Amino acid sequence: MLTSTIVDPSAADANEFLEKHYKSKADKQMLLVLGDCLVDYQGRARSLLDWGERLVLIKQDGTVIVHQPVMREPVNWQPAGSNTTFRVHDNQLIVRSWHNKPPEKMAITFRGLKLVATSSLKDRASLVIAGMEADVVNQIICEPDMLEEGLRISKREKPVKSGMIDLFGYDVDHTPVVIEVKRSIATISAVHQLRMYVSDVKKDVKEANVRGILCAPRVPDMVKNLLSDYGLEWREVARTVVLPDDHQKTLSEFLKEKKMCTIESVA
Known about the structure:
Layout: E1 3-7, H1 11-21, E2 30-42, E3 46-58, E4 64-67, E5 76-78, E6 83-89, E7 92-99, E8 104-119, H2 133-142, E9 152-160, E10 163-170, E11 176-181, H3 188-204, E12 211-216, H4 221-229, E13 233-236, H5 251-266
Parallel strand pairs: 11-12, 12-13
Antiparallel strand pairs: 1-8, 2-3, 2-8, 3-4, 4-5, 6-7, 7-8, 9-10, 10-11
């Protein structure tokens, strides 16, 4: 990772720095500018952001992001594929960014600069999110015995009148089992949801008995009591968060194995 910086530059020094380290290779470098700036945007709307100290990022794909010292979201931005130019006027560095579809343009005028830096970054990783409700469902599909021995999962996302059942299967005695999965604490509304699903299944099967199981990392006593009143069950299932690392499988192997596990278990 090659990085070049200049601290507290004048507008002329910053522009000279950009000529040397950035302008000819903008598609291979990320640019970071810290300073006191004014932002004028024209496009689908019109906005003017008065002077203030901000962080401006220009990414290697042309994306331009303007961040204030607080809040997560940028206050102004331009999408990937935008074109950017730099010039000096009245001892101020002016950054102009524009693109054509839709037509939008943004001018950032710096009257004071704290830092200008360029860096060549390499990142080919894909984001993998684990610990979601779908991961708990996949975990149960792969290991149904974690709920009870002999449980067989026959269908995922079974549609019924009231909605979509997370998992449907049969226990060791061939009794239908409706399983509702929650990734966080179980609630009263989840109990009523499970109750409706069980009622819907009872209308469609010949068996008089249909079991309902609510799965969540934690089931409060009040929820347990309500489940018992309705003849329903619960299991406290801790989420297993598994992400690939350098000592495990590659990302492609991890995703392939996860997909195969899901397909084979539901088949």
